[in-house]
Design brief:
539 residues, six-stranded mixed sheet, 31 strands, 10% helix, disordered N terminus
Length: 539
């Protein structure tokens, strides 16, 4: 039999104390040293030695990666006797990647001992551990019971519930024991995790991974059920973890949640949401996941739904590392938490149920006059609306009204040439705001100074006169009657170049007839532009 020594003894490779998901399951982290790896035929045997564990414990939990097949594991505890028994580890492997979780739990209470872990795997590969620790299952006592907040009617909320794949969908094993309420007396926190492996992209993968995680939490760690309240795959599908206190209650109403096990020492009132995958690049090459756009959008909706239903402040949306010494939820996710809180706040302001629908169109003519048309197609509680012009400088409200009345607007005030955007924003009760329409136009740049025709023309009361300046100067804009008598002086002011300018003319009190308006621009070298156009005032 061929026996090849791959990794020599006494080389110490300690594991980081900042554990990943296994830190949810342990009381004390343990430093492991990679002791030796040998290969016999095509079976790789890896062993890891712990430091002395002074605290009392009844079990151990380990997390790692192994690429090969037929992974098996054992633990051997330090003993003064001649024989030290190898006790089997309970191992659960990810359905899609190389991640695995392993645990041993027994009746004996141990303290001030060391232990050695042994793993064998088929294939020319090695086992890499990223976290380990010990736990005392005697501490797994449910906290005192308490009153649960009753769910509210979903109609009173702004954020619609995301679609949920419930425990029936992933064929959950039954809860062991009697669930108790999470809120005693209130829900206080929402905590983001990652599973540090066990990634899932498709629905089939997500259902299988949640089953496997529950398997380890129940049969490896010895918990009553899966520790998280919700899990999410990399395409944003949301899965129910622990059961609801009233299991058949409608998710949309925010059913009372069950006490979970995801943040050691801080589980009361704490809702746990875990992304399936490994999002902490410093850990290993197996931890390179980055949150997809779909998952991020779904996470914002999930946070908004949980914050609103369970009255949790968005300031209390945290990462697991905010409570325990752990890298969870991974650097890639933790860095995005401030933006996730911001986006959740925005969602709680706007809601994700439409206040209505509308068509919204904008078009411009050759002198930069923009005509905007809007038509409200549905109204689900619109109280007000406004139309804004958005340029490189700032947004300007150019029209606002109550209700949801369709209409047409001519915008003479677009001064800057180039791209200009318009938005139709509606408001509803409880300060909700949603953008129902966006339109973009291009304001033309004339080849030289231009005096445009007034609009409307003919007119009875008011009209608008627009002009474009190629060079800056003092602008004099006046209106004359047919005899050449000046009847109105509209402007005598310095104006900048390369912009459209507009002036309103009120013809109230003037008799009907043909008039002329003239623009004259004086620069440092004298008159640089002079032009006139007719306008018609109706009786």
């Amino acid at each position: 039999m061929r026996r090849l020594l791959i990794f020599v003894p006494l080389v110490v490779v300690p594991l980081a104390a900042r554990a990943q998901v296994v830190s949810d399951m342990i009381d004390v982290s343990v430093t492991l040293s990679h002791r030796v790896t040998t290969q016999t035929d095509k079976t790789v045997d890896s062993r890891f030695a712990s430091n002395r564990v002074d605290t009392e414990f009844t079990g151990i939990a380990v997390q790692g990666f192994a690429e090969g097949d037929s992974l098996r594991g054992w633990v051997q505890f330090e003993s003064s006797g001649p024989e030290r028994e190898w006790l089997p580890l309970y191992i659960v492997r990810s359905a899609t990647d190389a991640a695995f979780l392993a645990a041993y739990r027994g009746q004996d209470v141990r303290a001030r001992v060391r232990f050695t872990l042994r793993f064998t795997v088929t294939g020319e590969t090695t086992v890499r551990l990223i976290a380990a620790g010990v736990f005392d299952q005697r501490k797994d006592v449910a906290p005192p019971d308490g009153e649960s907040v009753e769910p509210q009617d979903a109609a009173s909320f702004l954020v619609l519930a995301p679609q949920l794949w419930d425990r029936d969908a992933w064929q959950a094993a039954p809860f062991r024991g009697t669930p108790i309420p999470l809120n005693r007396p209130s829900y206080d926190n929402i905590t983001l995790h990652h599973t540090a492996g066990f990634s899932a992209v498709t629905l089939a993968q997500g259902l299988e991974q949640v089953r496997l995680i529950q398997d380890f939490h129940q049969n490896g760690r010895g918990w009553r059920d899966i520790g998280y309240h919700f899990l999410m795959d990399q395409e944003g599908r949301l899965y129910q973890g622990r059961p609801f206190l009233i299991e058949r209650s409608a998710f949309r109403n925010g059913p009372p949640l069950v006490h979970g096990a995801h943040v050691g020492g801080a589980n009361t009132g704490n809702i746990g949401v875990s992304l399936m995958g490994c999002y902490h690049p410093p850990e290993s090459v197996n931890c390179q996941d980055v949150m997809t756009v779909a998952a991020r959008d779904s996470l914002v909706v999930t946070f908004g739904y949980l914050a609103e239903r369970y009255d949790v402040s968005t300031d209390h949306i945290s990462g697991h590392r905010d409570f325990n010494a752990t890298a969870c939820p991974g650097d890639n996710n933790y860095a995005d938490l401030p933006a996730l809180r911001w986006d959740t706040d925005e969602l709680l302001r706007t809601g994700n149920s439409a206040l209505g629908t509308a068509s919204f169109v904008a078009r411009t003519d050759d002198v930069g006059v923009v005509t905007i048309e809007w038509d409200f197609l549905t109204d689900n509680g619109i109280t007000d609306f406004r139309i804004e012009r958005i340029t490189d400088t700032s947004p300007d409200v150019i029209f606002s009204a109550h209700g949801a009345e369709s209409g047409t607007l001519v915008d003479h005030g677009a001064a800057e040439t180039g791209t200009v955007s318009y938005t139709l924003t509606v408001q509803g009760s409880r300060f909700r705001e949603q953008v129902l329409g966006r339109a973009v136009v291009e304001i033309p740049t004339p080849s030289g100074s231009t005096l445009a025709g007034n609009f409307p023309n003919p007119f009875r009361d008011q009209t608008t006169i627009r002009y474009f300046l190629e060079q800056p100067g003092i602008v004099t804009l006046s209106v004359y009657d047919a005899t050449g008598r000046r009847v109105a002086s509209l402007e005598d002011i310095w104006r900048d170049e390369n912009m459209w300018h507009a002036a309103a003319f009120d013809a109230g009190g003037l008799p009907g007839g043909v008039y002329y308006y003239q623009v004259q621009v004086k620069g440092f070298a004298g008159v640089t532009y002079n032009a006139a156009r007719p306008l018609v005032v109706l009786h």
